[in-house]
Please model this.
Amino acid sequence: MHRVPRLVLLGSLLLSSACASTRPPEIAFLTPYGKPVNPFSPAVRVGSMLYLAGQIGTDSTGTVVKGGIEAETRQTLRNIADVLAKTGSSMDRVVKCTAMLADMREWPAMNAVYATFFPVNKPARSALGANGLALGARVEIECLAVVAG
Model:
């Protein structure tokens, strides 16, 4: 009779147990503002990760705020904070952002406002120049965050 070493047997049992109980993460298409008007969800939760659609600096009427890149960046990040709050997360749980700017020469001004929203933990970030953001916006930012809990 051939004996299998206990360590090999235990490892095999643990692996098969882990594989048997592993399920794909739950996906939830979140609509914190009611039925979407646009063909996308403001946020999608996959397991404990939250993927936010890009936000621009629109006010409650859907109009891009006046005041240039600083005002738009501030409103964009307020909009992000609102979506996060309504979907189970917060700014301090953001792990990655992508910033799209209509004019990369506005990078320093955008960056100065952006930094005030992440005073302690700095999410990973990418940035790129973009031509033709929605509603003529100067900046659009999308984020990934961990759901609180």
